[in-house]
Write a structure and sequence with these properties.
This protein is α+β, with helices and mostly antiparallel strands and 95 residues long. It is 19% helix and 20% strand. It has helices spanning 53-65, 84-88, and strands at residues 7-11, 18-20, 23-24, 32-33, 41-45, 80-81. The chain has a single domain, classed as Alpha-Beta Complex (Adenine-n6-DNA-methyltransferase TaqI, Chain A, domain 2). It has two helices and six strands.
């Protein structure tokens, strides 16, 4: 199951459950946050029967700590970004 099967993923998503840093350094891209920023990628869980939003937040903390976003980050300088399409393709398994 892909993240896009259970959640809405978009930038400037004010009512999201949490957000991922979209632009920054290799170390900050993909870091989850509970603070809205219109530039961040918002994730709003639409099927809470399959995945609780708080659990998903911790899953994304784990992905970030393992450096999953670093190979997906694009850019040529110290400022890189991740794409919404990359986030939509993340594979999940139900809890």
């Amino acid at each position: 199951m892909k993240l896009s099967d259970i959640a809405t993923i978009a930038t400037n998503l004010q009512d999201a459950d949490f957000w991922l840093v979209r632009r920054g350094s290799l170390k900050t891209c993909g870091k989850p946050s509970t603070t809205f920023n219109k530039e961040h990628i918002g994730i709003k869980v639409i099927n809470t029967d399959l995945m609780h939003p708080r659990y998903l937040y911790y899953c994304f903390e784990d992905l970030h700590s393992r450096g999953v976003w670093e190979p997906l980050a694009t850019g040529t300088l110290s400022l890189v970004n991740i794409r919404v399409s990359d986030v939509r393709q993340i594979e999940l398994s139900p809890m």
